[in-house]
Write a structure and sequence with these properties.
heme binding, heme, steroid hydroxylase activity, Cytochrome p450, 53% helix, alpha+beta, 3-stranded antiparallel β-sheet, single chain
């Protein structure tokens, strides 16, 4: 009895440390600094929850300060060339409290408090590993997650989208909230098929996905954080059993292929399989929901661009990239210097955190003409860095692009007179950018 009590106390203490380091401490520092006029605080805290939330002016205000802005919590980069330099440099790693980056007591506390449940921001997740482990791990994974594999999913993705649109038509109601009824169901169904999950578990996966995706955000309150970890634990428990089932009964899904993949006798370990499946689940779900929802809003609010797509349907893929550029699903990503370095000609000390504002890089006037204009014909729309850059370039980029293109094209083909109603609402998250509600009249 005493042993179980001690275990519960230690478990709760570790959870508290994880919250303090990943959410409580950053939230306190950023909130206080914003009140003192720190532009970094404004970037992260301004406007979530409002559909009119547009950081364009703030991006330019930070950009005007020079290639690197020194905020209270970290340095901030907004120019695309500087951000690419940070993201591709071997001198910078993921993990704000990385042990090899001078994290000190925070790194030690983070290591002690690490959970044995999958989390996309802790090893062995691809988001949280570095070479040489990352190189080996990604080489194995990319044997399965190829562009050809994604294109083979295109036909099935179109079938799923049409089935969902059929359901909307059969519902008998012309008014619907598109986020839970379409934007969320399309990617969770595709991901379920990638993972070999039966369709009857789709609703359960959807609920777990909503909670697990919050692990990619910052500044969660204690209650939300505990709910997020509960969702991760539920998914992790389910996944362990699912991997055992796949090992005994492999299918033709991508997760079965990952279980079977070999490279010079090497294979993915069970923790690595859970990590990659969980990353596809947590990151691939919410970001694609946001991509589709953000695209619906942009196309609705810019009917001239929708008219262009009706006349030139070959531009739908480019339109998906333009949505990713102008209103990306992820606002920023961070890196920490693991040794003294130089970025944009400025000395950077070991342990320095640099937040790279992906959404600002996507509006860099040095790269994009009229960067704040939504233009589905933009020739270099694909030059955005919404999928990051360098060795941590998003593994699911091709899948997200395909789902965004298919999801948007088929929706507007089926309901060409779709109108968004009052009541659209953004997620209250700080890093993840998308809609929680998109009420619409279908036509």
């Amino acid at each position: 009895m005493a042993g179980r009590t001690l275990h519960r106390v230690e478990r709760t203490a570790k959870q508290g440390v994880r919250w303090v380091l990943g959410h409580g401490l950053p939230r306190t520092v950023i909130t206080r600094s914003a009140k003192k006029g720190d532009l970094q605080g404004d970037l992260i805290l301004s406007g979530p929850g409002s559909h009119t939330f547009d950081l364009a002016d703030l991006f330019e205000e930070v950009r005007a300060q020079g290639p690197l802005y020194r905020g209270a919590f970290s340095m901030v980069a907004t120019d695309q060339s500087v951000i690419r330099e940070v993201l591709t440099s071997p001198d910078f790693v993921t993990g704000f409290f990385a042990p090899d980056a001078g994290g000190g007591w925070m790194a030690k506390a983070g290591t002690w408090a690490a959970s044995d449940v999958f989390n996309p921001i802790q090893p062995p997740s691809l988001l949280a590993t570095e070479p040489p482990a990352h190189t080996r791990y990604r080489k194995l994974v990319t044997r399965v997650f190829t562009v050809k594999a994604v294109e083979r999913l295109r036909g099935r993705t179109e079938e799923i989208a049409r089935e969902l649109l059929d359901d909307l038509e059969r519902s008998g109601s012309s008014e619907v909230d598109l986020v839970p009824r379409y934007c969320g169901l399309l990617p969770i169904t595709v991901i379920s098929e990638v993972l070999g999950v039966p369709v009857e578990l789709r609703e359960r996966m959807l609920e777990m996905g909503k909670g697990a995706a919050l692990s990619l955000d910052i500044g969660l309150d204690w209650g939300t954080f505990r709910g997020m970890e509960a969702a991760l634990e539920e998914f992790d428990t389910w996944l362990r059993g699912h991997l055992d089932h796949i090992a005994a009964h492999p299918g033709d899904d991508l997760l079965s292929q990952l279980v079977a993949v070999r490279e010079d006798g090497d294979r993915l370990s069970e923790p690595e399989l859970r990590a990659i499946a969980g990353l596809v689940f947590a990151a691939g779900f919410e970001t694609t929901v946001n991509l589709i929802g953000n695209g619906i809003a942009l196309l609705h609010d810019n009917p001239d661009q929708l008219d262009i797509l009706r006349e030139r349907p070959e531009l739908w893929a480019n339109a998906a990239d333009e949505v990713l550029r102008l209103d990306p699903p992820v606002l920023l990503t961070g890196r920490v210097a693991r040794r003294d370095s130089v970025i944009a000609g400025e000395p950077i000390s070991r342990g320095t955190i640099i937040n790279t504002i992906l959404a600002a890089a996507n509006r860099d006037p040095a790269v994009f003409t009229d960067p704040h204009v939504f233009d589905v014909t933009r020739e270099n729309a694909r030059d955005h860095i919404s999928f990051s850059s360098g060795r941590h370039f998003c593994l699911g980029a091709a899948l997200a692009r395909m789902e965004g293109e298919v999801g948007l094209r088929l929706l507007f083909e089926r309901f060409p007179d779709l109108k968004l109603l009052d009541g659209r609402e953004r997620h209250p998250t700080r890093i993840l950018r998308g809609y929680s509600h998109l009420p619409a009249k279908l036509s």
